[in-house]
Queue: 2 jobs
Job 1
Amino acid sequence: MLKILLPILVLLTGAVGAFAIVAHRPTLGVQAPRAEPPLVSVVRAEPQTVRLNVRSQGIVTPRTEIDWVAEVAGKVMRLHPDFIAGGFFAAGETLVSLDPRDYDQAVAAAEARLAEARRRLAQEEAEAEQARSEWQALGEGRPTPLTLHEPQLAEARAKLKAAEAELIKARLNRSRCELHAPFAGRVLANHIGLGHYVQPGETLARIYATDVVEVRLPVSTEQQANLDLDFTRRNADRRPGPTVWLAAAVGGVEQRWEGLIVRSEARVDDATGLLHVVAEVPEPYGPKYAQPLLPGMFVKAEIEGREQSGVFVLPLGAVNTSQEALVVDAERRLHIRRLTVLRSEADRVLVGGGLAAGEVVITGGVQVAVEGMAVRFEAGDSSPEAGEKVGRIMPDTGGNQ
């Protein structure tokens, strides 16, 4: 009996104990999960005075580039050693010499004809004087011009002027056998060699001056409003245009050059609706630059613009594509604010309206913005500093924020 009753007793005891545990279990309260306000990074918006520079780009070209042609015919006798593609030359330097013997002979013949004309004029003057004296001694009435040798004298004087002009022309042609550089520059392309026989008007080379280079820079109508341009007057009365900084990568290193906007073109481009302004860079081969500004280079440009006050400079993350920013009030509540964006740059956004001085703007940390939602600042900072002023990419020129 004990073997039968003992297992039954154990089972009953376990059942009663389990029932007691279930019957007397503690009641758990239901608690809703608590949402944590998002942690955001902010800046304090403060108005600044900002120079609204204009960025553009263009191709460098020489201000002066010509086809150098021969004015007389002849065989090429001598060439300057640097009269090759890429060679440099100074103003007035003799680059090409043609065979001058035909022109030396022409000069000698012209001098002989001039001497003959002078002799003939002297003879006619003597004969005219003699005829006048004879008429005064023997003649009666009024003498005719032919009697006084007046036509012969006029012809002799005309022939003397013609001989003088012929000598001048002969000497001019002789001087053109020595071709001198019209300016200091560089040879772009050479078309002749020693022994080549050139004809008048034949192109000898393509050359350009190295004193100044130009860059045509397209600007939009909106960008023109930011530039201090005055091209309604003549060049003599016009004040200097704004400064322009050019930049290009040479050998992996960014090089910079400085110039001025000197003029604008006469019309707006029909295809693009852009106006081209022209920048000049003097002495592009000068020692002040580590690398010369060569024609044909593609350069980025930044033109000095007008200063504008009351501009808020914000990081790129502070403004979305709809030109809206997230502003935090004193109670740390988020508000979506529509801004007046002046322009967006590579590292900053310039805002002209929609913000008040001292307002706190969120720069990051909000995935989905809801009007009026609570936020908290990084590191518990309740008074963030003013937003960092974003610097320019191009070289510092003073006055740019």
Job 2
Amino acid sequence: MSQTALIPSHRKPRQSASKTALRAGVAGGVLSTIAVAGAAGPAQAEPVTQTIEMPTITAGLSTTVAASAEATQQVALDLETQANEDAAAATAAKAAKKAKAEAVRKAEAKKKAEAAAKAKAEAKAEAAERASRSAERTTLSAPSGSSSSGSSVSTASAPASSSAPASSSASGSAASVVSFVQMQVGDAYVSGGTGPNSWDCSGLVQAAFRTVGVDLPRVSQSQSTAGTQVGLGNLQPGDILYWGGAGSAYHVGVYVGGGQFVGAQNSSTGVVQKSLDYDPPSGAVRVL
């Protein structure tokens, strides 16, 4: 007998073939069952139905709808306000345009009326000039109305005989004004002229009074109300004569005494010294 015969073996005892076959058969059956179940599972699965309950949002939705409606109403009001403002602006612009056109029309009408009045005055002066051609030859240094004959004697003799003492009777500022205008006799008439060699009627009068420190308005209308109104029967040398209404005069001149005046008449005659009978003035004002 061997010495190791009594020592138990450490090997696992070998299983019998029948047990191994049994276990294999059981395992194969389980796997077959699982395979069959897996194949049939999807076809036999029932659909899952689930009901989801939504939360109630009625309160929040009402607030949102109300806010949206208010915003829409505000937009509508803003649009209406803007439309009203645009309409008002258009109306105002239309009214302003109409007023401007009316003002332009009135200004043009006034300008035409003034031009017509001036043309009428010039035409009147020219007509008188032609009608009294012989009497116009009277000069400052030759007041000899007695040498004339016929009707010219009757119209110019009285002023001529008194013209020298009339000029000498002026004194102070009045004498300076008279002397200035008489020195301009023979100068040209130019509309808007203010000297020194061409004048219009109001430009000559303004320049004459400026020599004595009196600043008169520029135009005839204003000069006809620049002083105290005096009667034509109470004239003194240096008085301003005007033709037309006080405040609406279309011509002015300076009374130099002796029934005569000096004025820038028109483009045909220039600055002349004439008898009051040549073109009787409408009134007079006294500044000095």
